Amino acid sequence: MRFVDTRLTAVWDKVQSHERLSRDDGVLLFETDDLLGLGRLADHVKTRRHGARVHFVINRYINPTNVCVLSCKFCDFARKPGQAGAFENTIEDVLGMIRDGVREVHIVGGHHPDWPFEYFERMIQAVHVGRPEVQIKAFTAAEIDYFWRRWKIEPKESLARLKAAGLHAMPGGGAEIFSKRVARALAYTGKADADRWCEIHGIAHSLGLPTNATMLYGHIETKAERVDHLLRLRAQQDISGGFLTFIPLVYQVGDTKLVPRQTPPTDALRTIAASRLLLDNFPHVEAYWVMTGEQTASIGLHFGADDVNGTLEDEKIAHMARAESPAGLAREQLLRMIRDAGKVPVERDALYNVLRVWN
Ligand code: SF4
């Protein structure tokens, strides 16, 4: 490969010889003007792993509640008890949200001040018994940590009990940016920090629960902080090995307005590509269409992404922050998004078992 930015040649040499990229390489990936060169590098790595395949799942988002004791400054989703827009769903409500054909439910919510851990345990059990064909991906590390802060249930115990109740995997949320500076500025010091977030994912992995990882970017973080976040995830994966997918999350300006406008699509493509190149031990990197928009996600399939998440029926967190993407896509629209990029859609379950290759 030849590059407009010749500094990328050294990265290409490392990529070809499967050599791990350094922190300086990571900073270069976020700084280079050669976006297309960066994309070709990441696409090479993606294709080496997955060929033309791009994964998706028929899934349903469920937020049992948006009532939360915290007030993270980037969050448009949370409400205080009794505040307009606050909602609390019963277990029956949750069961009623799952229609036939769904393979995965993604259950996350606010840090409710009163709901005991046992309520969530019963919820998982009810979904598992009522819908045994559905895989349950639920509770961010921040929520698992909150069960300790509020109810003094150690993560090892809560995760073991939730697994016994029917939990299959954990989502990757709650990581935000692993930077104490940003955590202080955006008032999320009251939840799991980088060490605790990684510790909880390590515990999940040791219990046989695969998990995902995320990074919320496009607000006040620096490019170096993005690189450090990714390297911290890579180090944790070296230790515990249970991460399936990395999902870069574009900050939605919404009503929180930490920055005047959403980071541009070129930044989303750059971040997908840099993630694919730095996270050499992560099986999958996602183009999360809910936050990037469908068109950018489709182009992201040429910048290192091999997954578009799924139909995401009734996604609320990004849409309460005024994300402009549709609130859920039908399978046919996902197939079109993937095929428009010239890729082969592969329908999967929550654990990446292949259900159908849509040739
Ligand atoms: S990001 Fe999560 S913990 Fe923070 S306020 Fe929103 S719901 Fe609560």
Characterization of the model:
The protein is α/β, with parallel strands linked by helices and 359 residues long. The chain has a single domain, classed as Aldolase class I (TIM Barrel, Alpha-Beta Barrel), CATH 3.20.20. The chain has 14 helices and ten strands. It has helices at residues 8-16, 23-31, 35-50, 91-96, 117-130, 141-151, 155-165, 180-185, 194-206, 223-240, 265-278, 289-292, 294-300, 331-340; strands at 53-57, 59-62, 104-107, 135-138, 211-217, 243-250, 284-285, 307-310, 344-348, 354-357. The strands form three sheets. A four-stranded mixed β-sheet has the order 8-1-9-10, with helices on one face. A hairpin with a 5-residue loop joins β9 (344-348) and β10. α3 crosses α11, α6 (141-151) packs across α9 and α9 runs parallel beside α10 (223-240). The structure holds iron/sulfur cluster. Iron/sulfur cluster (SF4) is lined by residues 68, 70-72, 75, 77-78, 110-111, 142, 191.
Q: Over the alpha carbons, how many angstroms does the gyration radius reach?
A: 19 Å
Distance between the termini: 30 Å
Strand line-up across the major sheet: 8-1-9-10
Q: Strand share of the residues?
A: 5-15%
Helix/strand/pairing category: alpha/beta
Silhouette: globular
What is the CATH class name?
Answer: Alpha Beta
Low-confidence stretches: none
Short summary:
The chain is an alpha/beta fold and 359 residues long. It is built from 14 helices and ten strands. 50% of the residues are buried.
